[in-house]
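User: Hello! I'm new to structural biology and keep hearing that structure can be predicted from sequence alone. Could you demonstrate with Probable transcriptional regulatory protein L21SP3_02020? Please show me the input and the output so I can see what each looks like.

Assistant: Of course. The first part below is the input, the amino acid sequence of Probable transcriptional regulatory protein L21SP3_02020. The second part is the output, the predicted structure written as tokens.
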Amino acid sequence: MAGHSHWAGIKHKKAANDAKRGKIWSKISRLIMVAAKNGGGDPNTNLPLRYAIDKGKQANMPKDTIEKAIKKGTGEFGAVSFEEALYEGYAPGGVAVMVDALTDNRNRTAPEIRKLFEKRGGSMGTSGCVNYMFAKKGVILISADKADEEELMDLALSSGANDMENHGDMYEINCAPEAYNDLKSAIDDAGIEVESAEVSMIPDNNVEISDPEKARKILALIESFEEHDDVQNVYSNFDIPDSVMQQIES
């Protein structure tokens, strides 16, 4: 899980920077709109909407901005034209990549995503070429200084978690998607601050990247996807050892 955790940490730091520019709010607004459009405006009966609202709260989105996005999704402020699109392919080193997007123009977004793959030494594949390598899971990250490891593990496992891993400065808790809401609520009720929480696509196996230059190319590729306005999430199965990450960051 090291590769996933590295990227989760990178994404968390990046989200903080994006929030200052308001970019992340725009992306989450799309997510809320589409969830409300597909399942209605009540988060109590629409789990994707509840997840999207949670994501907005983590990014410190104002309540009225969230409510406005919900109303846009339900049609109160006009029709929503965004639709979901999933692009699959490979980064350098045979690393699998899935790019989850919300777009109002597939004819524009698909060529742009393909170009980003090719520009950074990757290649976009056909639908289904890599998604079988991933499983949907709830992922909750908590800073190690925010909770006692043993107490957190007891709470997590008794609240539906499958496992918890210690990555030094961060605890990573995984669960089945259907257990996510109860687990997140239990952690919140215990007063434990969460760094990030989402239902994500987790790789069954990771590809270890020991070459720093190749690792830089992979991270640059994924970062370029993250910066694209239509992209909501990027999932990958790279595993960059701590020693290599230190070389990259130095």
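User: So the tokens describe the shape?

Assistant: Right, they're a compact way of writing down the 3D structure. Reading them back into a model, for example: The beta strands are 83-91, 95-103, 123-124, 134-143, 161-166, 170-175, 196-203, 207-208, 231-236, 238-239.
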